[in-house]
Amino acid sequence: MTRRLYAPFLVILMIAIVGLILPDLVHTTASYDAHQVSSQAKAQSVAPKGHNDREARPSPQKPGNGQEATSVYIITLKDNTTPAQFQAYRQQLIKQGAVIKYEYSIIKGFAVYIKPSQVQSIKKDPLVKNIEKDQEVHTL
């Protein structure tokens, strides 16, 4: 008789333990920063193999040395962009001096280091749906 009561007791105990631990797991999962959330959207770092993202990142240039500072911008291409157009646009960005940080496959876009003066010319490209400065995103 005690064995029949013992099994349900263990099940209830396990449910209680999971109930105590689960909220902490959900909180930890929800507190990713913007780049980790981006990686869940199938972002692919374009850093060379054997290097981490920080090593591949160019140092921001300070305006005091006669050059314009670079910032990270998210460029989203139109939904009907073909893979060939995507790759051609990628090469075009590189020729214009952009450093590609991430490529996004789901939203068809890039995270790139560019100068603010380049934003207007990128906006005018017929393939570009949107361009915005990258920023941190926080959960409530």
Summarize the structure in words.
There is one protein chain. This protein is of the alpha+beta class. The chain folds into 2 domains: 1-31; 42-133, Alpha-Beta Plaits. 41% of the residues lie in helices and 20% in strands. It contains 5 helices and 5 strands. It has helices at residues 2-30, 34-40, 53-56, 83-95, 119-123; strands at residues 43-45, 71-77, 99-104, 109-114, 128-133. It has a 5-stranded antiparallel beta sheet. A hairpin with a 4-residue loop joins strand 3 (99-104) and strand 4. The chain is elongated and about 75 Å long. The protein starts with a helix and ends in a 7-residue tail after the last strand. The model is unreliable at 26-42 and 47-63 (pLDDT under 50).
Overall pLDDT score: 74
Please state the CA-atom Rg, rounded to the nearest Å. 23 Å
Count of strand segments: 5
Write the CATH fold name of the largest domain: Alpha-Beta Plaits
How do the helices and strands follow one another from N- to C-terminus?
HHEHEHEEHE
Detail the poorly predicted runs.
Answer: 26-42, 47-63
CATH architecture of the largest domain: 2-Layer Sandwich
Order of strands across the biggest sheet? 1-3-4-2-5
| Residues in helix, % | 40-55%
Name of the CATH homologous superfamily of the largest domain: Peptidase S8 propeptide/proteinase inhibitor I9
The top-level CATH class of the largest domain is Alpha Beta
C-alpha end-to-end distance:
49 Å
Write down the domain tally: 2
> Counting H and I runs of at least 4 residues, what is the number of helices?
5
Could you give a short account of the major beta sheet? 5 strands, antiparallel
